[in-house]
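Box 4.2: Ligand-aware structure prediction
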Amino acid sequence: MPSVDWKPKFSVGVERFDDDHRHLFSLLNQLHMSMAGRERNSALNLILKDLVWYTQTHFRAEEVLMKRYGYPELAAHRAEHDRFTEQVIQFVAHFQSGRNEITVEVSDTLQEWLAQHILQSDAAYAKFFRLKDAVEVRSLPQALVSDAYCAVRGALS
Ligand SMILES: [Fe+2]
Ligand SMILES: [Fe+2]
C-alpha cells in the first residue's frame, strides 16, 4: 500500500488533533519503511514508543473533548480507540519479543485503520462539534484541548 500522508480532507477542524493525525501518519510511514527495509534498530524502537504514546494521548484527548461536548457516540468511538490501541500494543510486544511475523502488512493495516477512522468516526464528531457550537469549537479548542492533554498526561504518567 502506498504511504498515506495527511491531506486537508482529513481535517477535523481542531488544529491540535490535525497535528496529531499528521504525526501519526508520519510515524506509520516511518514504520512502513522500517518494516520494508527489515530494519531492527534503535530508531524503530523510538518510532514504536512514540506511536504508543501518541495513540494513547491523542485518543484520550479526543475522548475528553467529546465528553465535554456531550457527544452521543462517545462509547462507540472509545471502543474503536481501545481496539486500535490494543492492536498497537500487541504489535509492539510482538516486535520486542523478536517474533518474525511482523511484516509491512501490519503497519499498512494500522495505517488503513487510521485513515478510515479519521474519515468516518473522527469526521462524525467534527460534524457534531460544528453543529453544537461552531463559534466555541473554533475559538476555544486551544484551551480545551490543552486541558485535555494535561489531564491525559497526568493520568498516563
Ligand atoms: Fe483522531
Ligand atoms: Fe478518534
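In the box above, the bound molecule is fe (ii) ion. Residues 13-156 form a domain with the Four Helix Bundle (Hemerythrin (Met), subunit A) fold (CATH 1.20.120.50).
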